[in-house]
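<instruction>
Derive structure tokens from the sequence
<data>
Labelled lines for chain and fold
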Amino acid sequence: MSHKRVAILISGGGSNMLSLVDSMVGDHPARPCLVLSNDVEAGGLKKAADRGIPTAAVDHRPFKGDRAAFEEELLKPLEEAQPDIVCLAGFMRVLTGDFVSRFQGRMLNIHPSLLPKYKGLNTHARAIEAGDAEHGCSVHEVTAALDDGPILGQARVNIDTGDTPDALAARVLVWEHKLYPVVLRRYASGDRTPVLLP
């Protein structure tokens, strides 16, 4: 069986990356081929290396807002790894349409809201402030528009009275770690049917 090659982009500790990596075993149709970060000190790089996964980092800071130049450097380790699928897992840089178009139809992202609600940042606080009864996370195909593209899976959690953004974020993260591996497995098998958890 030839496995799909998966590159995972991270910016921090890589908890979603680990949930993906640890799921890609046995009869899973995919295997990790690279963990790539925009921060050379991202904690997830060491965790990936400890699991024997190739890693690379391209620090975005020297590029002073020149996204095209940063992405040109980011592409080098990606093209070398030749991924079939690219997973954004807490990658905190907005990618240009040019970059996304290179991986159109094979790039996934996980976002902490029930899209199309609350694109962008501070999703947990925004859901609480809006008085929503539920919140959650979404996995979607990446398009040039921010947090847009076909939704491939969602997991929902109730918002409790007195919830804080941090408390809500912690509960949503548990479901992120469950949802993303389920979607990736199906996606790598060619199944684009949306998943709803729990």
